[in-house]
Design brief:
about 90 residues, mainly alpha, 2 helices
Length: about 90
Amino acid sequence: MAKKRKSDASRLDEVDRTMYSTFCSAANSLSQIYTQAMSQQKLAFQAGERHGLVRIFILFFTSLFSPIRSSSVVNLIDWSFGLFASNIARI
């Protein structure tokens, strides 16, 4: 008895299913990468925020017996941005 061959339509359906599952897998992977990137961005922002608060805290306690001027805080922030920009330029 001869083997039955799959019809052309069923072969195309199989190709469509394979392409669809591949597309779904790629879309899910992309979504996972995006979620991880957003999580990393949030963590980096929080780390930068903590670093800035620590710097201001140190500024306040190092000048505990002298008045703190807003220009001191602005200079600290300006210096921090300059340091950040130089680190970005090295990358």
